[in-house]
Amino acid sequence: MVTETKNSYQSISKAKTFTPPSTDEVFIFAQLSKNLENACIKARRYILAATRLIVFLRGQDFRSFGAEIRLSLRVPILIVLWGH
Length: 84
Description:
The chain has helices at residues 25-45, 78-82, and strands spanning 50-58, 64-75. It is of the alpha+beta class and 84 residues long.
């Protein structure tokens, strides 16, 4: 078991189960945004920036839906990722 603090990353992953299950697109997008912001916080903490995003959602039946987004700029800030 490694007990030392990790100080370098090849990738950052954040997975979160949100409840209650929902089909409300606005709620799902809000949860996805919150989870992505948590990953951005970690990237900023370690002075990292993303070159791609992989986003997936898993339904109650455990089927997964996902997409990979390649970024033209390396960015650690959520607002830039969402294009606002």
